[in-house]
Structures are given as structure tokens and as C-alpha cells.
Amino acid sequence: MTDATLPAPAVAAKVLSPSDWTKLFLGFGAMVIGQFMAILDIQIVAASLPQIQAGVGASADQVSWIQTAYLIPEVVMIPLSGYLSRLWGTQRVYLASCTGFIVMSVLTGLSSSIDMMIITRALQGFIGGAMIPTVFAVAFTAFPPERRITASVIMGLIVTLAPTVGPTLGGHLTEWLSWRWLFFINVPTGLVVLFGVARWGEFDKGDPSLSQGFDWFGLGVMATFLMSLQFVLEEGAKNSWFQDDLILGLAVLAAVTGVVFVWRSLTYRNPIVELRAFANRNFSIGVAMTAVSGASLFGGTFLLPQFLGRVRHYSASEVGTTMVISGLSMFATGPLAGRLVRKVDPRVPMFIGFLLAGWGMYMAHGVTKDWGFWEFAGVQACRGVGVMIAMIATQQITMSTLPPHMIKNASGLVNLSRNTGGAMGLAMLATSITQQTALYYNSLSSSVTAGSVEAQGMMTGLAARMAQLGVSDPDGAARKAFSGFLQQQATVMAFGDSFTLLAIGCFVAAGVSLLAKPAKNAPPPPSDAH
After folding, report:
1. pTM for this structure?
2. Would you say 356 and 385 are in contact if contact means Cβ atoms under 8 Å apart?
3. 3-class DSSP state for residue 367?
């Protein structure tokens, strides 16, 4: 057997004293809070972009970069953090990441111009990116096998809840205090995290010898590949994809550097990212399923607020109230999903989870303009339960058969796949909504011009109503109102297609999940333990 197919030894299976358990949980708990903080900051600005735009004097085009600037450099740090953890040790990397994140949060909150904010947000995303995968690695190295599912449940709750509550929390903070507190709030939380990790977070030691022969070329190629890819996914839908020269050029650059990055990682003696983990079938399938669960998680969180804002014209607080069902269902399902994954083959709950998530999305394929809180409650509950079950089972499948020396590096790849899957899902959904809305609008408009009796009757009624209101051009106002009605109907139908598209992806993932090998929840230590 190769290293990539060896079962994971029970590296922490030794009997721990109560004081050791206390230290482990306190250190891990502090890291989890920091992970929540880092993931939350991706979406916390979503509901407050108009206020930030006014505060820093940004244009409509510039303000979107407040989110994009955070995400693009973050994808570079996520895989790099595995190498840094092996070099310096998890505690040092995490403390440095958290400290830099706090400093950049303060500078972002103090920003007086959009240029300063974009720079500080980029540094905040890059430096803070290490807080996300290091928690994942600790869960699968510091905890004994029988406790790893509990740690997975905790991480699953963080990964799913943070994007869900981010816009709601951000909207309320902006309303109560100001938009600057979206970033200042990280200071007290970050100080608690720093204290906890510094006091109880010494889980391993670094290996300074890894600094010899550091692959600077590999780092440059990886950064170029990931940042180009992320930019294309984030901005492509807004700029008509390859019709834009910049998007086309960066897509070609991402394709070329991606190939060079894979070649370099497989041939260099000390690669930044160890891709040999993909030789393990469960890991490869798990990474693919993680990408799908990321698309489902972020895609569902994207579609619903978009629909409620564009069609129902809900405020940020009303959107947050409607979205709460998703968060509650995930929170309630976490402990139950952990028990289920412990008792049966993880492939079974992974299959069930993706089916439930897909069915939840498909329930909204017939969405109408009148759907609100109660109509979406079942959709959110079913999707939330399914995503949580699928995510926890996927984590177990992905890491269960990897040797411990690969886990730190693999954790970065897993988290990268979730972020990339989410970005691809959002790009696909945004493009689908735009294209399908235009298609349906043209179809509806052509049916009207063909001489629809119902449409002509509606136009006559609208014109009469406008005349009663004293409008100077009742026929023109009627045509404008009718065009708005057609646009709304086309938008609603396009959202129905997007919900269906997301459902199909989950159903396909459910089938693919059965291709994984059986994974024991507590594999026995091999005789040649590292």
C-alpha cells in the first residue's frame, strides 16, 4: 500500500487525563471561535454595502470589491497554511494569523477611502485565511478517532452558520452602531481567541527543516493560478464572461498556471501543496463532494436573499428573519448527524444528506412572486438538514483513510475545494439567472406582441387606471408597468430554474458519493505507525 492509501493511525488514541481533555477542548474551542470569525467576515458586509459605499465615497462598481478583495487572496493562504503549520507548528501559525486579522480589521474599520479599504480587506483575507483550515487539521490529528465526529459536528455548524448569519448580523450592527463596527467587532472576539490559543493551543511542534529548499516558484505559480481563477469566478458573470478581454485573459492565465502548478507540486522534492493525497480514492471523492456541498451551502444562501430582495423587495432585516429557518435547522441537525455518522457507514448519511439538500432545492422549482417566509420555510429546513448531514459525513469520508502526515496539507485542500465550489456555484447561478431572465422576458414579450387577448385586456385596464390617477401619458405608463410585470415574471421563472439547477447538482452528488470506499469511524492503528 502507498502512503496515500494507508488507513489513518490513531495518533491521539492514547488515554488522556481530564486535565488534558480540558486543555484540548479549550484550545480547540478558541480556534473554532476564530474560524467562525474569519468565515463570518466573508458575508458580514453583504447587507451593508450601500452604507459602506457612502462612508468611503465608492462607486457602485468599486463597492463590490469589498467582498472580492477578501476572497481572492484568502484562497492562496488556505492551501499554504498546511505547509506553514508543518514548518512552524499549528499554534504559531494560528496566533500570527489571528493577530494579523485583528490588526487589518481595525485598519479596515478606520478606512477613509475605497482604495485603503480594498488593500486592508485583501490583507485581512490573506492573513486570516490560515484560521480556517488549521482548525480542520487539529480536529483530525489532536482528537482520537472516536471523538473526531464530535469535532466535525462543531466545525460543520461553524461553516454552515457563519455565512447564513453574516448578512443578518452585519445589517443589525450597521443599524445599531455604524458600518465600521462590522470590523471593530473582531477586536474583542479576537483577543479572547488569542488568549485561548496561546494558553491551551499547543497541539504539535513544527519542523524547521522544511524551510530548506522552499518552493518560491511553486508559491508564485499557485498564487497566480488561484487568484486568477477566483477573479474569473467572482467577476465573470458581471462582465459577460469571455466577452470581456480581462476575464478571457485571466481564464487563459489560470489554465496555464494551473497545469504548471500541478506539474511542480508532483515533481518538486518539497512542494508547498502535496497533491499525492488525491491518489486516495476517498479523499478525491470527498473533495469533490465538499465542493458540491459548498455550492449548495453558498448557492442556497445566495439565491434566497436575491429572490427576496429583487422580487419581494424585502429589507435586510426581513431577509434575515426569513433565512433564520436555514440556520436553525442546521444547528438542530448537527448533533443528530454526528450520531448517525458514528453508527452507520458514512456513505449512507452522505447519500441521504445530498438527496435531502437536492429535494429542498427542488421544492422551490415552482416558486411564484408571492412566496415569502412560510413558503420558503420547508425549502430551507429540508436543505439545511441535508447540507449539515452531507457535510459532516463528507468530512469523515474525506479524511478517514489518510495517514496523519498528510492531514495538515489535506485540510487546506478540503477547505479550498469548499470555497472554490461555492464560488463556482455562485458564478453558475448568477449567469443562469441573467440568461434565463432575458430568455423568458423575450418569450413573454413575443407572446404579447402576437396579439394575446388577455394581455391587451390588461393593457387597457392599466391605461384606464393610469388615466384615473391623472397620469399625463396613461398609455405609456401602462406599457411601462406591463413591461415591469413581464420582467418580474421572467425573473421569478429564472429563479425557479436556478433552484432546479442546484437540486440536480445535489442529486448527482448523491449518486457519486456511493463510489467511496467504506470508511471506519475509528480505524485501528497500523503496525508501522508513523
Report:
1. 0.77
2. yes
3. coil
